Amino acid sequence: MKRIMTVIALLSAVALLITGCGISAIPGATTEEKNQVSDLIKTVQKAQTAKTDEEAASAIINGMVEQQVKAELDNFNKIKSIDAPKGLPAELLYPNGKITSSQNNGSDDYMALDINIKTTDSLQTVQDYYKAALAKTPWNVTEQSNEINQFNYFAKVTGNDYLAASIWGYGTDYSKLVEVTVSYSGPITK
Fold first, then answer.
1. H or E element at residue 127
2. How many other CB atoms are found less than 10 A from the CB of residue 140?
């Protein structure tokens, strides 16, 4: 079984190289690409030195997860935050995050703003920020939930039941990033 897992790891490494997620040992490879290949080799070596099939499988899975997390963080650190849509209240922007997408699906009479934010802060830290931000005037939280690896708040602007915000935050055990989706919508008063 350990040999089968090692073959699977090697096939995975080859697939990564072929699909461009890694690099073969060619001159001109970047340091990052060389490190990816080195990490794959270390994962295979751990599997080969495991005493049991379970340890070999665990070494392969953990190695692949570690590489995915590292690649995800590297990509996050390279991206720049985009601008928030005009009209989005400042307290709905998580201060230690990067806006990765932004949409304004409204019209002349109705605003419908959506943003996605990513951060390396913990899910609890993000949730605490939004809980505090939505506890202040003019917000009135009407719904909230807290489940494993996610939270959700729905709040209305006091005195205007049609102007509302929805915040959904989530993370996983296999990622160092937390993602937040913020929606803000309602009629535009002129």
1. helix 123-133
2. 15
Q: How far from 50 is each of 5, 12, 46, 148, 186, CA to CA, in Å?
A: 11, 18, 6, 33, 59
How many CB atoms neighbour CB 132 within 10 A?
10
CA distances 184 to 26, 33, 123, Å, are: 50, 41, 21
**Whole-prediction pTM:** 0.76
Q: Give per-residue pLDDT as tens, 46-82.
A: 777 888 888 888 888 888 888 888 889 999 999 999 9
Exposure pattern of 39-50 as b/e (b: 16+ CB <10 Å)? bbeebbebbeeb
**CA separation for the pair 128, 91 (Å, rounded):** 13
- For residue 22, the surrounding DSSP H or E stretch is none
> Rounded CA gap, 134 and 117, in Å?
17
